[in-house]
């Protein structure tokens, strides 16, 4: 676990070395390219949408990685948010998309607070496993209370209205797609801002010195809780988008494999990297779908091998490789101080 | 002895401990320690390694709870409080082994401290843009570390880390500053100058200080008062002159420093 945190990317407030403007330009291009998908590659729209929803959830895991903590149970908040939306639609047919999203995020935030208050006392393997335990408990509740939750079949989440309008399937899909892109940009930006803020910086210093934190008059638990809440909310947004995209929620949403997948994607993209969470999710989904179409279960082997290569040779993930290329292209080399981070 | 003064007129001491006891295994690290620390002075604590000096600071700041005995801050019983609550009451600490955020730069460590002091209000403001930046640059200057402001802490020398550690504590604007061997690791050519500036800054800001020190030259020049620790308790207390000329001290403490 400490391995992963050591591998995570620079997390300091200073502007990173290299060329931030080039970085911003590439980010803008990538977002525009994504926005063009319904026109240039309509067959990929659904796939990309699922990847974006997952990416926002992975961002939640990424936040925790910045503090050197790995959660193996964050699908819990992904699932709670999805189910909150489904229950809302069941009790309030024709509810608005915004309402579904808000209900999901509230559910995730509330459960994040409850679980968070408990798990922030722990670090490392215990933190990771306790999160897993909570998600397993919720999973079995979903499976066992069949009459409420629909058991393994889950429950349908009918198409919500959009600002009062009843949309056809394709129209609704377009709305969800662009909403996902907008939320990716907004939440990615907010998370980046939070990372460089005093509280975000203190959150990231948790792994280097909790003694000093206490002697600054701060509670390490409270600081961890603030990041934990952020991560739960991000997973909630991802889960809500996923549920509305798929139109059905099942216990699989909180299944531990889903949690592990989030950690996998976060490390793949660049442990601790905001952009990496989305790049990782896109690559993951694309490889999964296309490789399995061509050759059965080979995709797991492919991704496993890929992750192995990343951890061994590029511990900062795909974003680390990308940054390296940007630096090489740029005129200015990072100072030793920046490299040491 | 009571927290309210015998006459009932004067204020209670800034910090007072009563009969602190703690044992670690067979070692009695605090053996009935009763101390009063008056506001506005610089108290040096001297004594051999293992005498319980650091333990005393640990108990005063709530890091270690005594088996028995109490700690009062201006008459308030702070014994059960966690360090962070004692810190928020105005007691800051610099450590024997610097406690810094090692992945952050020297300046960022100070900025974090200032932000903590102000309460973390704005979660979307860049740490580097907080209002206290100039004030923190000034503090860095005070401890002669301006040139390493943007260096990551792991790259700094031990002496620089000690000084940053003190600056981080000062950034909290404490009423009482506890320093554990502040000049150990600082180049001997710099020691006096740094202490001079530090003590000057403390006096200017009205900060009371307690510092554990092994260098008797520093003690003689910068302390208003000296307490000699031995085997978990205060053996002697007096002015630097009285203490440094005391035969027991010359034999037990200074003798050891020379040896
Ligand atoms: N947390 C602790 N656990 C066990 N023993 C300790 C602890 N803190 C201090 N001690 C022991 O208490 C004694 C006093 O230590 P300390 O206060 O660090 O002395 P000093 O700072 O005067 O050198 C030493 O024998 C030390 O080993
Ligand atoms: Mg000591």
From TrEMBL, chain A:
What keywords tag this UniProt record?
Answer: Cell membrane, Membrane, Transmembrane, Transmembrane helix
Predominant place of localization = membrane
Protein name per UniProt: Branched-chain amino acid ABC transporter permease
Superkingdom of origin: Bacteria
Stated membrane topology is: Multi-pass membrane protein
Ranges that cross the membrane: 21-40, 46-65, 72-92, 98-120, 125-142, 175-196, 223-243, 263-287, 299-322
Q: Tell me where it resides.
A: Cell membrane
TrEMBL record, chain B:
Tell me which GO cellular component terms the UniProt record holds.
Answer: plasma membrane
Q: Which Pfam families match?
A: ABC_tran (PF00005)
Q: Which UniProt keywords apply?
A: ATP-binding, Nucleotide-binding, Transport
Q: What CDD domains would the database entry show?
A: ABC_Mj1267_LivG_branched (cd03219)
Q: Name one GO molecular function term.
A: ATP binding
**tRNA processing recorded as keyword:** no
Q: Any idea where the ABC transporter domain is? A: 15-256
PANTHER family registered for this protein in UniProt: ABC TRANSPORTER ATP-BINDING PROTEIN, CONSERVED COMPONENT OF ABC TRANSPORTER FOR NATURAL AMINO ACIDS-RELATED
What protein am I looking at?
A: ABC transporter ATP-binding protein
């Amino acid at each position: 676990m400490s391995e992963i945190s050591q591998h995570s990317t620079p997390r300091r407030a200073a502007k990173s070395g290299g060329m931030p403007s080039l970085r911003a330009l590439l980010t803008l291009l990538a977002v525009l390219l994504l926005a063009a998908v319904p026109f240039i590659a309509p067959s990929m729209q659904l796939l990309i949408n699922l990847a974006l929803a997952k990416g926002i959830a992975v961002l939640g895991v990424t936040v925790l990685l910045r503090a050197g903590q790995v959660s193996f149970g964050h699908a819990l908040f992904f699932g709670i948010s999805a189910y909150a939306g489904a229950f809302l639609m069941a009790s309030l047919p024709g509810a608005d998309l915004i309402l579904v999203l808000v209900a999901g995020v509230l559910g995730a935030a509330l459960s994040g607070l409850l679980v968070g208050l408990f798990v922030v006392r722990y670090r490392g393997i215990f933190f990771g496993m306790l999160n897993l335990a909570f998600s397993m408990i919720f999973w079995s509740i979903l499976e066992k209370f069949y009459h409420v939750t629909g058991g393994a079949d889950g429950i349908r989440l009918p198409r919500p209205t959009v600002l009062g309008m009843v949309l056809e399937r394709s129209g609704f899909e377009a709305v969800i797609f662009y909403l996902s892109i907008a939320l990716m940009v907004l939440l990615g930006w907010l998370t980046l801002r939070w990372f460089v803020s005093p509280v975000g910086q203190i959150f990231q210093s948790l792994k280097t010195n909790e003694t000093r934190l206490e002697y600054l008059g701060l509670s390490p638990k409270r600081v961890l809780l603030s990041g934990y809440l952020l991560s739960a909310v991000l997973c909630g947004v991802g889960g809500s988008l996923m549920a509305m995209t798929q139109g059905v929620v099942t216990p699989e949403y909180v299944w531990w494999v889903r949690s592990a997948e989030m950690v996998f994607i976060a490390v793949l993209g660049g442990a601790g990297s905001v952009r990496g969470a989305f790049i990782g999710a896109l690559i993951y989904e694309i490889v999964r779908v296309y490789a399995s179409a061509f050759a059965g279960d080979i995709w797991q082997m492919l991704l496993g091998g890929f992750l192995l290569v990343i951890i061994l040779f590029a511990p900062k993930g795909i974003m680390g490789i990308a940054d390296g290329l940007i630096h090489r292209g740029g005129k200015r080399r990072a100072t030793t101080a920046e490299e040491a981070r | 002895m009571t927290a309210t003064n015998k006459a009932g007129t004067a204020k209670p001491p800034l910090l007072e401990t009563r009969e602190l006891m703690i044992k670690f295994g067979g070692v009695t690290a605090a053996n009935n320690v009763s101390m009063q620390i008056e506001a506005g002075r610089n108290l040096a604590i001297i004594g051999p390694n293992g005498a319980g000096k650091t333990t005393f600071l640990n108990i005063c700041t709530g890091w270690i709870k005594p088996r028995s005995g109490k700690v009062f801050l201006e008459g308030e019983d702070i014994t059960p409080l966690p360090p962070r609550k004692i810190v928020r009451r105005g007691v800051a600490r610099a450590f024997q082994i610097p406690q810094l955020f090692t992945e952050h730069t020297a300046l960022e460590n100070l900025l974090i401290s200032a932000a903590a002091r102000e309460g973390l209000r704005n979660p979307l403001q860049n740490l580097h843009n907080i209002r206290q930046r100039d004030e923190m640059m000034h503090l860095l200057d005070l401890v002669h570390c301006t040139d390493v402001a943007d260096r990551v802490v792991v790259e700094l020398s031990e002496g620089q880390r000690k000084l940053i550690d003190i600056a981080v504590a000062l950034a909290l604007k404490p009423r009482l500053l506890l320093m554990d061997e502040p000049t150990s690791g600082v180049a001997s050519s710099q020691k006096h100058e740094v202490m001079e500036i530090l003590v000057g800054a403390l006096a200017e800001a009205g900060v009371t200080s307690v510092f554990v020190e092994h260098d008797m030259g520093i003690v003689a020049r910068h302390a208003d008062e000296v307490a000699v620790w031995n085997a978990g308790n205060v053996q002697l207390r007096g002015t630097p002159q009285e203490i440094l000329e005391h035969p027991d001290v010359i034999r037990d403490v200074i003798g050891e420093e020379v040896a």
